[in-house]
Each structure stands twice: as C-alpha cells, then as structure tokens.
Amino acid sequence: MSEAATIDMIEIPRAEPGKYMSFGLGEERFALPILKVQEIISPTKVTRVPKSPTFVKGVMNLRGKIVPIIDLRERLGRDSRAYDERTCFVVVRSVCNNREVSVGLVVDCVLGVTMLNDIQHPNQIEEEFSSGAAGFISGIAIAEGAVNVLLDVDSMLFRIVEGYLKEA
Amino acid sequence: MRVIIRALNNYRISVRLTMISAAYLVVMSVLAYQTVTISNKDIDFGRQEKLGNQYQRPLATLLRQVGLHQMAALKVSDDALAPLEASIDESFQELMAVQAAIGENLDFTPDGLAKRKRSDFSPDKVRQAWMQLKGSINTLTPEQITEQHRTVLDGVRAMFAHSGDTSNLILDPDLDSYYLMDVTLLAIPQSLDRLASIGTDVTTMLSNSPQLSNPDRIKIATYQSMLREADVSRIRADLDTTFNEDAAFYGESATLKKEISPRLEAYNTAHDELIGLLGMLVESAQPVTTPEEFVSSVKTAHASAAALWDAGVGELDVFLDTRVGAFEGKRRDAILVALTLFLLSTGLVLVIQASINGPLKQSVAVLANGSEQMTTGVTEITSTSQSLASGATEQAASLEEIAASIEEISGMSRHNSDNAQQATTLATQVQDTTDSTVSSMNIMSDAIQDIFKAADETAEIVKTIDEIAFQTNLLALNAAVEAARAGDAGKGFAVVAEEVRNLAQRSASAAKDTAEKIRRSKDLADRGVGQSKEVEQSLGQIREKSVKAAEIIREIAAATKEQALGIGQINEAVSQLDQVTQGNAAAEEQSAAASSHLGSQADRFKGVVQEISGMIYGSKTPVRHAELTPEDWSSPKVAPKHTAAPAPRPVAPTPTAPTPTAPMVKPARNGHAPSNSLTGPKSHAEQIIPLDDNDFQGF
Questions:
Q1: Are residues B327 and B436 in the same domain?
Q2: How many CB pairs under 8 A join A and B?
C-alpha cells in the first residue's frame, strides 16, 4: 500500500498534443513524444550486465556512450521474442534523478512520426487500467483508425530504476 | 442219283443218319444171316448124319440076324430058326417105324430110291423078300435059301448105302467121325456080310467032305485075305485114325476109347482067331477043325463085329452131337454177337445223332440269330453309309467354305504382316523422337536450374535493397526526429524526411513484392524442374515400352509369317481333305451298294440257315425252338426298319417267309430277286459272291 502510495505520489505528466513517434509491440501500437527520441538504430551488439533485471538486456556502445538496452516487451509483461529485420532500438532521452540519460528500448518495429491531437488521459480511463503498468501511460490517442498508447518515458524509467534499486 | 438226293432232302439229318446205320445194319444182318445159315447147314448136316445112324441101327441088327438066320437055315449052325425069325420080324418092324419117322428125310421114297437106281431096295420090298423067304424056307433048296438070303442081305446093304448117301454120313467133314463112319457104314456091314458068307460057305465045305478041295482052299484063302485086308485091317486102320484125330476135332471124346477099345480088343481077338483058323484051313489039307468049332469062331467074330458096330455107332452119335453142339454154340454166339452189335450200333447211332444234332441245333440257333443280326447290321450299315455319303457331300461343301475362309485369312495375314512392318518402323521412329525429346527435356531442365540460380541471386539483391530501404527508413525517421527537434526551422526538413521515409517504405514494399514474386517464380521453376523430371521419366517409360512394342510387333510379324506358312499348309491339307472327302463319298456310295448286296446275301444266308434247321428239325415241322422265336425265322423284323429308313433305295430284300414244304429253293430264289431290283451293278455282286440257284440246289 505504501508502495502504491509512492507510485501514486509520482505525478504522471499529461500528454500534450504534438508529434509522436509510434511503434508496434505485437498487435498494439505505442507512441512516444518525438522530442524524447534521440535516435533510432538497427539492433547492434548488446553486452549483458550482471545482476540486472531480466528486461534489461545489457548495454550497448552508441558512438562512445554506454546506453542500457531495455526490452520493452518484457517490461510491459509480455513474452520476449527473437529480433527480426524490423526490430529497432529506439534511443530515448530521459531525466532521472535530475540526470539526463539515454536508454535504448527494443521495439518490434517503428511505424513512423504522427501528429496526435485528440488525447485522452489516464484519469479518464483509470477505471480501465487495473495494473501497475498504467503507471507510465500518459494517455491514449486515436490516429489513422488505430489506438496509440502514449508512454511517459521518464516515469517508466523511474519505475525501472526504482524497481532496479528495490531488487538490488 | 439226283432224284434220290431230292427224296432224301425231305428227311431230317437224324433220319438220314439212321438210314446210314440201317444200311450198314442190313449188311451186318446179311453177314449174320450167312453165318447162322452156314451154322444151320452144318447143324442140319450133323443132324442128318444122326438120322442116318438112327436108320442104320435096325439095318445093322437085320444084317447080323439075317446072317445068323442064313447059317441056321442052312443048318450050318444049330441055332433055332423061330426066335431068330421073330427077332428079324421085330427088327423089320423097327425099320418100318424108323422108315415112317425119318424115311422121307433120308430120301427113302420111291423117287429118291429110283434116282439112285435102288427102287428094289425099299424097306417094304426087302421086307417082302424076307417074308417070302421066311414063308417058303422049308421048301427051298440050300442054293435057293442062300440066294434068297443074299437078296435080303443085298437089300439091307443097299439101304445101308442109301442111308449113308442121303444122310451125308459119307461126306462127313471131320476126320475122326469120318473114319468111324467108314467103320460103321461100310466096313462092319461088309464084314458082317462076309462073315455070314464065310460061316455058310466054309462050314458047308467042312461039313461036306473031310478033305478040302483046292478050289475050296483057294476060296478060303480068298475069304481069309479079304477078311484080313478088306475088313480087319481097314477097321483097325480106321479106328487108329479115329483115335489119332479125335482130339483135333471138337476136343477129345470122353467115351470114345472107353467104349471102343474093349470091343475092338474083343473084335481083334475073335478075328485073329478066325483068320488064323482060315489060314490053317488053307495051308493044311487035313481038317484042323470041326464045323461046329468053326461056326462058333465065326459067330464069335460076327458078334464081336456087331458089338463093335453098336459101340461105333454110339460113339459116332457122340461125335455128331458134339459137332452139332459146337455149331449150335457158334450159331448162338453169332446171333448174340449180331444182337449185341445191333444194340451197340443203335446206341451209337443215337449218341452220334445227339452229338450231331445238339451242336447243329446250337449252331443253327446262333446262325439264325447271326443272320438276323446280320440283316439288321446290314440295314444299319446301309443307312449309315448313306448318311455318311450325304455327310461327305456336306463335308465337301464345308471344305470349300473352309478353303475360301482360309484364303481370306491368308489375305488378312499378309495385311497383318505389312502392318506389323509399318508398326515396327513407327515404333523405331517413336524411340528416336523420344530420345530427342528427352535430350530437349534435359536442356530445359538445365535452363530451369539456371533460372533458379538467377532468381536466388535476384533475391539476394532484393534483400539488399530491402535492407537499404530499412536503413533509409531509419535514416528518415531519425531525420524526422531531428527536424522535430529543430522546431519550426526543421519543418521543411521534416517534410523531406517524411518523403524520404515514404520512398524508403515504398522501395521496401517493392522489394518485398519483388521478393515475393521471385519466391513464386522460384516455386514455379521448382515445379517446372519436378515436372520435367516426371516428363523425362514418362519419356523413358515411353521409350522402354515402345522398344517392347517394337519387339512384340517383330514377334507378331514373325508369327504372322509362320501363320502364313501354316495357312499354306492348312490350305494344302484342306485340298487333300477335299480329295479324301470326294473319295469317301465315292467309297460310301460303293459301300451302300455293297451293303445292299450284303443284305441280299444275308437273306440268302437266312434261307440256308432255314434249310439247315429244316434238316435238323424236319422239313415238315415248323421251327419252334427255345432259343428261336418264330419271328427270328420268319417275321420280317427288318422290313419296318427298311420302310422307315431314310434310304430311298430298296436295300433289303423282301423278307422270306419260310414255307415248310419247300425250304430249300425258295430262300435262294427270294434272295436273288432283290439283287435284280437294285440300281447297283448286279454283275459286281455276283463277282463278289458268285452263287446262283444251281449252287443252292446242292443244299
């Protein structure tokens, strides 16, 4: 309860209309604010880091910078799958403990850059979310006939770090 | 001769056999009759002799008694006359009795006596002479007495001779009885007569003078020599012969020597004495004896001769009885043998009849049956041969059809051969075509493989393009991200990035499409390769099978050639068959004709069988035998068959109904008639069996 309280204590910023980069995980579409995206790369060699959570695949060398790689499927509680030619690493920029970090997210495919205007927020849909995963959903937008789940990278990373720390 | 044979034909064989044996029996009977007759003759001969003896008995007594009477009447002896005369009368009575009984048998008839110039010496006349002598004895001179006695004695002697002649005694066939007969018939009577004369004369000489004159002595010497030589020596010689020969004729007599010998001895003694006495009288002039002594000696000799006569006649009768008995036995034997032979031959005839008739009956039954079957068989043969002939004609027609069919088959076979040749060529062409197709298929298969490789390479290129498009897409995304970060300044760049991204995505999808198409074309090429493999296999099979087909077609061609050869042979065989069939048809015609003739012969045969059965069962008795029903002989069992037979020709002769009276001519004539009505050549049938009615006349 206390943990929930702490989670509840973190305020999830409400997503604003703007440009989003959408990607696919399985059947679902997710989207990130384009300004959070640093770059998109093809999967490269990942070095595993001991004692890291299972969804942390390791670290990669991105032009001299060490970037941790997180399998978003596993982070979102789905089965992992082998990489294919469409699998991409989406490197995002986040602020964690007042420190700007880059994190690579493994997604099934990148769908493109979309302008999302009609966004619904979590409190409007909190009844629909019952799990903790809802803790980093900043909103849901419908574009081009499809539902895009908007993720808040910072809170997601925070929760990762929190979970990481807790595990440690 | 022929008439006799015809007459005999009316009798059965058994009767004829009986006739044969009867003929032989006649001969045999004649022979037996001859034997019996000869025996009878011998028996009668003997009996006649016995009658002679019977007749001689009173004669011998008379001879002795009259001699004694003479001596008594001349007072030479001192015998009383009366008893002598009484006994002489008695003897004459006996003679008359014998004469009455058997006189005729011995020809003591006036005719019989006259024939032998003895008419004066019948018993009656001799008796009359005696009666005259007896009545006038006291008035007669001694010379007259002697003369009268001589007359009587001559008569008696003549009767002796006559009885000897007529009773066959003089012809006696056996030596022993002959010599005994000589004694009794001739010698002793003569001797008795002589003794009487000696007694009378010599005693008278002795009584008249004491001294014998020379003439007297000469007379005495004559008497003596006569008595010795003509009487005694003869009797002794005769009896010797009789004794010697006795055993040779009907065995030795049991009584001969017993009866004769003592009397002969007495006879010898008496006569030797008398002869000695006479000798003395001749030699000495002095009287050596008294008349009484001399008469006594003469009478002794006389009596001994008479006794010898009695015994001799008795033994002669024994001889005769023996001979007659022997001949009677012979006759009985002959009759018995004849009877036995008759019975035996009769039995034998019956047995032979049975032995001939039995097998003959069986044979005739078999023959009758056989002839019936022969007729039936001939009918069958006729119909069969006719149907065969028609069959042969059909056969010939069929053979022509066959020949035509074979011609067609031959043409077809030639056609087949040509076709097989063409098929062989075609099959070879198919092989060539298949071979070239297979090589084309191989080339095609290689081409498809090349296409396959090219498609793979193209797929690699497309993949590269796809990767490039992906990278381009990523670059465009990153450019869009950068443009967004640049804010308003990056708005144009964002549009460019968007366009680049669109292009990248289009090239990716095009690459994707291309890859898809390449994959499909690869699949198709794959399938093409598979198909070409299958086609190649199929072509291989086609080639293989076409090779096989070619082989088979070659075999067919060879077979067709052989077939053509075979058909040629068949054709030949059929032509030969045709010839044979035509020959058969001709032969069947001939056989039909021959069987017709055979039928007529079978009927003749039947007639002959009937004749034979007539000979066995008798021509007048209809044949009813257990094995032969009347139909077998007479019924035209065959006739309905003939009328029902399909043969148009009248093959069978008209059935011969046996007429019991004349069975031997009719069948032959009937058997001959149908052969005349035959359409076939008559001369041919008669060449085969050259018989005509004349040949059957012999049956």
A1: no
A2: 38
